[in-house]
Structures are given as structure tokens and as C-alpha cells.
Amino acid sequence: LSENSPVQLTLFDEEHYFVVGEKASSYVVNDASLVFTTPTEISLEEACSGQHRMFQAMFLGSQEQVDSFEADFGQEICQRFSGVRSQPVIYEAMPSGVTKAFALERLAKQLDVNPQEIMAIGDANNDIEMLEYAGLGVAMGNARGLGDVYKRQSFFCSITLILCRLGTWKSDNIYPLLFQIFQAFLQIGCVMLRINGMFEFLS
User: CA-CA distance, 128 to 190, in Å (whole number)?
Assistant: First the structure.
């Protein structure tokens, strides 16, 4: 698909951030830097050889390029994979049925934890299912594309929490306060907490 579009195809195994068939663009380089790595060029033949156990693909480009890619190929991708526009410059594809909620549910069952005892934190479209699954879904202040959650989930509440830096605060005083806040939210059900402030923990 990427051969018919200006977006670049990237693939992931447990150790590598691959870019397929061409030199990494600035979008790919920047995204790789966010996970403290650099992209490795790989041919399409090697990517398909079975030598690497790939678990995720991403298509990266400018917002306009990814808009066009999603419009042209998004429906086709979603027929075979779990596709999602996670960022303005990224379209992701995972194995069919695999989402962050799927992984969280598997982990919860292994640990014998009830979903209502879980707090999930996310900032993008690929976090929506996970936020809906958890008892407490927290949308970060930089969250994009999560407006649909507010519309679909009428039982979610949205608030803005700002903690100001006070010279007399110590880090061990903040944690009990946060715990009390979250505990209060849990008592009224599933809550979408949108944080637009910054927590500054003082030593």
C-alpha cells in the first residue's frame, strides 16, 4: 500500500524500528526518537521473509498524506487488521482484534484483577478501547482525538485538574491527595479525568 502512497511503512519486532524500502523521513526519525531509538532500513523482501517476528505496522507522513492514505486504504486495512489513526501523522495496523484493551484484559485476567480496579492513561485514538475498558480512564492533557469518548460514554465526566506549585509541598504530601481524588471519582463510577495541568513533584 505504501508503494502507492507517499507515506512510509514502518514495522516493529521486539528489538527494531524498521522502515521499509527507503530512507527514513523526518516523520519516521522523529517518531523513533520518542521511543529512544533510530529507524533501521529493511527491504520488503526481508520484512516478508519470516526472519523477524513483526507485531505492528505504522504508516507515517504529513497530516495531509496520512489523510489521503486513510481515505484510500483505511477500509481495506480494517478488513484484515485492527487499523486506527493514532496521531495526525500516523496510521497504525495491528493483528485483527488486537488493541490495547485486548492486552489489558489479558493481563487483568492473568493477575486476577477486576476491570473496575484498573486505571488506564492515554492520549490518542488507539487508547480509546483501553480507556473504556478500565474502571478509571484518564485522558492526558495533550490528548488528541478523544472527543468521541466523551460523546459515546455518557457516564464519563470531564473535569480539569490544575495543581499549582506550592513551596511548602513535598512529594510525599501529593500522593495521598491524588489517591483521595481518584478514590472519590471511583465512587461515582467510570470517570474520564482530563488533566490540563502539570504535576511538579518537589524533592
Answer: 14
